[in-house]
Design goal:
Elements: H1 2-17, H2 27-30, E1 35-48, E2 51-70, E3 75-78, E4 81-87, E5 91-97, E6 103-112, E7 118-126, E8 131-132, E9 135-136, E10 140-150
Antiparallel strand pairs: 1-2, 1-10, 2-3, 3-4, 4-5, 5-6, 6-7, 7-10, 8-9
Length: about 150
């Protein structure tokens, strides 16, 4: 019983220390001010006729510039759009939610790929309900996988 309690206490202490503060933030990610990202592989999901469908695509690169990054202040620009930046121990997230209900997020990971670039994932979640005779919109989601280069 003592071992279980000690293990639980250790996990709680580690989790409590995992919050991002001055000591927990990734210094390399915190120092970023601009990133050039490319995403050559994507997966898109949709619901068509009540069935869930996923498509994997390669080769159609999506290029994104993330600029004016202020990780400590929680802001950045993705293209012309001002977004929220969230710094964690292992990643820097950029989130944009639109008034139409879409959510776009780019997560730049502290893990480097073979070329020394930072691995990244771009997720998009869209749903704008429209129903006209003969046509009903369905939710559309996608993830793009790639890398970002600090500039």
């Amino acid at each position: 019983m003592f071992r279980v309690c000690a293990a639980v206490a250790a996990i709680v202490c580690l989790a409590a220390g995992a919050g991002v503060g001055a000591q927990g933030a990734n210094k390399e990610l915190a120092a970023l001010t601009k990133l050039a990202c490319t995403f050559p592989v994507s997966v898109s999901g949709s619901w068509k006729g009540g069935e869930i469908k996923a498509d994997i695509r390669q080769g159609a690169d999506v290029a994104v510039i993330i600029d004016e990054i202020d990780a400590e202040g929680g802001t950045a620009k993705v293209g012309p759009t001002h977004v929220t930046a969230l710094l964690t121990q292992t990643s820097l997230h950029f989130m944009d939610r639109t008034m139409q209900g879409s959510l776009n997020m780019i997560s730049v990971l502290s893990q480097k790929g073979p070329k020394g670039t930072l691995r990244a994932v771009r997720s998009r979640h869209d749903y704008l309900p429209i129903a006209i005779p003969g046509f009903v919109t369905e939710p559309n989601v996608s993830q793009h996988y790639g890398e970002c280069t600090p500039e």
